[in-house]
Design brief:
There is one protein chain. It is built from 16 helices and no strands. It is mainly α.
Amino acid sequence: MTGTGAALDPERATLDKAAGENFPVAPFFLPHAWRADLMAVYGFARLVDDIGDGDLAPGGADARLLGVSPEEAGDRLVLLDAFEADLRRVFDGTPAHPLLRRLQHTVRRRSLTPGPFLGLIAANRQDQLVTRYETYDDLLAYCELSANPVGRLVLAVTGTSTPERVRLSDAICTALQIVEHLQDVKEDLGRDRVYLPATDMRRFHVQEADLAAPTAGASVRALVAYEAERARDLLNEGAPLVGSVHGRLKLLLAGFVAGGRAAIRAIAAAEHDVLPGPPKPGKVQLLREVGVTLRGEG
């Protein structure tokens, strides 16, 4: 394999993960230019999450591209620092990583600012240092970094950003992050992370040991139901975003809201027992929720 082909391998490995996401990253019905730019944003977000979770492709190619020595390639904080340095070159130079070179075209075409990208890096840096959240407000502050920048970037790429739309988008993105945390309680615990607020765990008499059980007891189920209702309220708060736009963007945003609502229904259908594995909605349920969301009935 030539040097150029080898350098592109990490880019392909990351972008190929789009097919396994819970929602379409850049669905076929969007204009080609939007799809290309959304894939560039996805590549950034996926790679920074993979760094933070220790899920980079084997072989150390990403670390080499970022100038990190083999001795430090296992240090996630070092990798995140190097990735942030390369991100800054997107705005004032020439980045080394091919995913960031791809992103540079989008940044220039859409006049994107560093803020949302830096927020996603900060969230993954926080994941290395903070593994428990005392209050719901603490969790919301984390979601402000880990989730809300994604929606803001979608609005920026599509040229539809306004202060009110950003506010509504933030509610949707935070809700989707909370739902994902509920689906992944067991997986997160395996990474020594708990995203259920400690104050809520105490309120429902849930211990961390309860989260490691094969199935959830009554207290865990009650806690999951409580957090799912909070996520539902946030989705309902943000849903007017769908009606504020038109055309294919309306369908894309309806898909995001519907995906969250369908996931909450799947959790409820599992009687809020998320410990055996993530409850996932079926396609029929998802399409039904898309229709409800588009009609503004949710």
